[in-house]
Write a structure and sequence with these properties.
The complex is a heterodimer of chains A (321) and B (552).
Chain A lengths: L16 H11 L1 H19 L10 E2 L5 H4 L1 E2 L3 H8 L3 H19 L1 H12 L3 H12 L6 H12 L5 H9 L11 H28 L4 H9 L4 H25 L7 H7 L5 H4 L2 H11 L3 H29 L8
Helix pairs in contact in A: 4-16, 5-10, 6-10, 7-10, 8-13, 10-12, 12-16, 13-15, 15-16
Chain B lengths: L1 H20 L17 E8 L11 H10 L1 E8 L5 H10 L7 E3 L5 H9 L7 H5 L6 H10 L2 H11 L13 E2 L2 H4 L4 E4 H7 L7 H13 L11 E4 L10 H6 L12 E2 L5 E2 L5 H15 L12 H8 L8 E5 L16 E4 L16 E3 L6 H11 L2 H9 L6 E2 L15 E3 L20 E2 L7 E3 L5 H22 L16 H6 L1 H22 L7 H14 L1 H15 L1
Parallel strand pairs in B: 1-2, 1-3, 4-14, 6-9, 13-15
Antiparallel strand pairs in B: 3-11, 5-9, 5-10, 7-8, 12-13
Helix pairs in contact in B: 12-18, 18-20
The chains are: A mainly alpha (321), B alpha/beta (552).
Chain lengths: 321, 552
């Protein structure tokens, strides 16, 4: 076996770390050119705006701008935590988000397995396409559909009452108890199909040899799903779960805001709708930024915690980092 | 070659990304100013589906001819989100249009923009009563009482600096500012053999009859005895109307005055609790659906004037035009219902919603344009469209439905149809005339709808005057809009208490009405009062009293 030449600083082919980096960079310049765009995107839209985060610690005035507005330290945070409903806001956000994860996370996995085990190719494609379509409905239209269907007088429920001659039903859209169910399950209906894509893709990478071996051992189809398919896609599931927990406090404001009315405000007011109203609509940008920053800190903490738990449970095999 | 193309494409993509981060230029290049030469003004205003074009528009043409300025438009879409768009543009240091028109912003936001010089302080123009703002003052003084003028001027000013950042839109007609008008189905009344109710017991009696006697005659149990919408405005808030049967309460003001000039919180009174019990019982008995809390007023039309089939609604709240499918037969079944409680009207007539921005190079001209819009002729053009086509001068001796001398003649009201003769629904920047039934003359060409509208408007006005004559509400209980300073809002804990108490009583009102909290339970009621106390209601009242006395 040939011995590698010993390189010293004086050797002609010796390269410093930076030079090595340059060599590799130039050698794979096409790949680096491709990464330039997402890199620029991240830099411009995710890192550069962090400069503006300082307004969470200032009393922002348009005239003073980001750097010349008065410092107020943690004043905006103190204001939020002295708001009489701050606990309610956090609970509403967490409850909605956790419900979404608990109810919504397993369904795409199951759906992907169902699609995967289906041997009729045509049916498989139809099922995939049909389940994808709701994803393309906008939030506004989605809430419009909900309102149209659930209106107890002029909607489908109202038509049912008239048809059966019964009294109009109580308005489910204004029910505190129904709000979270409506929010979550309409979301599942809308996104479950689309969310299967990544799992269907992971399942397609399951080696046939594993299935062949399991078949020889006499495993049924269901057993193979449990013992072959599921374990194979588990790392993907774990990563998706960790990332999902990373946005546990980031329930988007649009749908909750659109579904909100005076009767369900107690549960429909979440951090993002509150930030929208106080920060943007009422032009209190510093306050909105402070609450948003607090949200992001919690989200980051959640990623770290869930990643740690995952690592503990899987002997450091499935954690994101 | 391929490498070169790849590099160029990548650079173009990255540069385009960078370009997206830059500010966008709003408005056009301003023309010359001062010399009356070519002046171009950009006007930012909300979109409206009824206006087919602002550029090719009779009002625009008339204003351009009258002023000699070229007008350009920058429509904003998004309804209530327009304030957010403006806020974002200001935060991003984007250029604003020369004039913002019909943009609803909170007083706090307006003052912030004004103090930060995003809006021009127009005090000097208003001070020049003989020239620059002559039209404003002439019409202001001719159309408003001294008390109203004082009230409106106070609201126009920044409470701390005295600066005036807006040219107001004012509605002088009482009818135009009326709220919570109820309409009753008189055909149903005939069928169930009842008269219009004049007290709570009779109201209950009528509602029960509507529910049980199948007044629409279709054999189905589909009647809604009482309906309204708490959201969406336009006076459809049936809950407020019901509360005012028991206690005078204007939830825009939150507080009332007592005989000693002290502010009181009507939402802690026993009368208020009785009102909540009454509303709760209506919902429990099925006389009013609980969907009033989640229906928006624009959605009400589907219920109050269904596209097909018989009427399903007995009594409902709201501005007539809300429920008006043009020439809908069902509409004509409804007549105004007189309140036996307190007639609530929106006396917050000053809309601070027209501004000249600091990006405007032609402030004199922009203000002049607004003054032109404040002229009487333009007010009619803004509301009723083109002179000679949509409206004209009244015939000599003509008398309106209300019996008053007519000031103008309506030929064809364009408000409810798509048109190119006005800018935004009815109002833009003017002293508004809402005069159907009051001082308008109708002619043969006027549609049946217009005639009907005129009649019921006149009737509404008569009923309102009647209630007002009975001192309902008691004039000395009506609290003006209280203006807090920015320092109070930012620094004073009592202001936070004020805003939290208002938020809490409004949420609780819905809970009491729906039965989530029981208004009949002393424990629930006392818990509600205790919560208000713990939020600092006393401090809130003290602060509001202080602010109120400052205004006197």
């Amino acid at each position: 076996m040939a011995k590698s030449p010993v390189l010293t600083e004086n050797s002609a082919v010796y390269q410093t770390g930076f030079q090595k980096f340059c060599t590799v960079f130039v050698k794979n310049w096409q790949l680096h050119l491709m990464i330039l765009l997402p890199f620029a995107y991240l830099l411009l839209f995710h890192y550069a705006p962090m400069y503006g985060l300082q307004i969470a610690f200032r009393h922002y005035s348009p005239k003073g701008g980001i750097t010349n507005s008065d410092w107020v330290g943690f004043g905006q945070f103190a204001d939020f935590f002295s708001y009489y409903l701050w606990g309610n806001l956090i609970w509403n956000t967490l409850a909605l988000s956790l419900y979404q994860i608990l109810a919504g996370f397993p369904i795409p996995v199951v759906l992907a397995l169902v699609i995967h085990v289906n041997t009729y190719k045509g049916l498989k494609k139809v099922a995939q396409n049909v389940s994808y379509i709701p994803h393309f409905i906008s939030v506004v239209i989605m809430v419009g559909i909900l309102n149209t269907v659930l209106n107890p007088i002029s909607g489908m429920l109202g038509a049912y009452s008239r048809l059966t001659g019964t009294d109009y039903m109580s308005d489910i859209r204004g029910s505190n108890t129904a709000f979270r169910h409506l929010y979550v399950w309409s979301g599942i209906w809308q996104t479950a199909g689309w969310s299967t894509i990544i799992y269907v893709s992971a399942l397609s990478a399951v080696p046939d040899e594993l299935h062949e071996a399991a078949k020889l051992d006499g495993a049924s189809r269901l057993r193979r799903v449990w013992s072959v398919d599921l374990p194979t896609i588990m790392p993907t599931v774990a990563i998706m779960l960790i990332m999902r927990f990373g946005s546990v406090m980031s329930v988007g404001y649009q749908k909750a805001y659109l579904m909100q009315n005076s009767a369900n405000l107690q549960v429909s007011e979440i951090i993002s709708t509150y930030v929208y109203k106080k920060g943007l609509a009422a032009n209190n940008l510093s306050y909105g930024s402070a609450v948003g920053l607090m949200n992001s800190v919690v989200n980051t903490t959640m990623v770290v915690v869930v990643n740690w738990i995952t690592n503990r449970l899987t002997d450091n095999e499935m954690g994101l980092f | 070659m391929k490498k070169l193309i790849a590099i160029v494409l990548a650079l173009v993509t990255v540069l385009s990304l960078c370009a997206a981060c830059g500010g966008t230029a709003a408005g056009g290049e301003g023309g010359n100013n001062g010399d009356g030469e070519h002046v171009k003004l950009t006007i930012g205003l909300p979109t409206n589906a009824r206006i087919l074009s602002w550029d090719d528009n009779a009002l625009t043409a008339w204003l351009e001819e009258k002023t000699g300025y070229e007008l350009e438009f920058q429509p904003y879409s998004g309804g209530t989100d327009i304030a957010t768009q403006i806020s974002t543009a200001v935060a991003a240091q984007e250029e604003l249009p020369d004039i913002l028109m019909q943009i609803s912003l909170s007083d706090s936001v307006i003052n912030t923009y004004g103090r930060n010089e995003y809006f021009v302080d127009l005090s000097e123009y208003y001070a020049d009563r003989e020239d620059a703002s002559k039209t404003f003052w002439e019409r202001f003084e001719a159309n408003l009482s001294e008390a109203d003028r004082d009230n409106i001027l106070r609201q126009m000013e920044d409470p701390e600096t005295g600066a005036i950042y807006s040219v107001p839109t004012l509605e002088t007609s009482l009818l135009g500012i009326m709220d919570y008008q109820m309409w009753i189905n008189v055909e149903w009344l005939d069928k169930v053999g009842k008269e219009k109710p004049t007290n709570n017991e009779e109201l209950l009696d009528v509602l029960r009859a509507f529910k049980t006697q199948d007044p629409n005659g279709n054999g189905k149990n589909d009647e809604i005895p009482l309906f309204g919408a708490q959201e969406g405005g336009l006076g459809a808030d049936v809950i407020n109307w019901l509360v005012n049967l028991f206690v005078y309460f204007n939830d825009r003001k939150n507080f009332n005055l007592d005989e000693n000039g002290k502010l009181t919180a009507p939402f802690t009174s026993n009368e208020y609790r009785e009102a909540l019990k009454f509303i709760n019982s209506l919902i429990k008995e099925g006389l009013m659906p609980d969907s009033v809390f989640s229906t928006t007023s624009p959605d009400m039309a589907k219920i109050t004037t269904p596209a097909s089939g018989p009427a399903i609604c007995g009594i409902f709240a709201g501005h007539l035009t809300l429920h008006a499918a043009l020439n809908n037969e069902i509409l004509y079944q409804y007549e105004p219902l007189q309140t036996w409680g307190n007639a609530v009207y929106n006396d917050n007539t000053n809309k601070r919603n027209n501004f000249i921005t600091s990006d405007c190079d032609n402030v004199d001209e922009a203000f002049n344009l607004m003054m032109t819009m404040w002229s009487e002729e333009c007010s009619y053009r803004i509301r009723y469209g083109e002179y000679g086509v949509n409206w004209d001068e009244a015939d000599e001796g003509a008398v309106s439905d209300l019996g008053l001398p007519c000031t103008f003649k309506i030929i064809r009201d364009p408000l409810m149809e798509q048109n190119t003769c006005m800018w935004f629904g009815g109002v833009a920047c003017t002293l508004v005339v809402y005069s159907e039934g009051e001082t308008a003359q109708l002619v043969e060409e006027s549609s049946p709808w217009m005639k009907y509208k005129s009649e019921v408007h006149a009737e509404s006005r008569r009923l309102f005057d009647e209630a007002a004559a009975k001192n309902n509400p008691p004039a000395d209980q009506i609290c003006p809009v209280i203006v807090f300073t920015e320092d109070e809002k930012l620094e004073d804990d009592d202001y936070q208490a004020y805003s939290e108490c208002c938020s809490y009583y409004k949420t609780s009102r819905t809970d009491f009405c729906k039965g989530t909290m029981d208004p009949n339970s002393d424990a629930d009621w006392n818990a509600y009062l205790a919560k208000l106390d713990s939020l600092g209601l006393k401090g809130a009242l003290d602060l509001a009293q202080f602010a109120y006395e400052r205004q006197l």
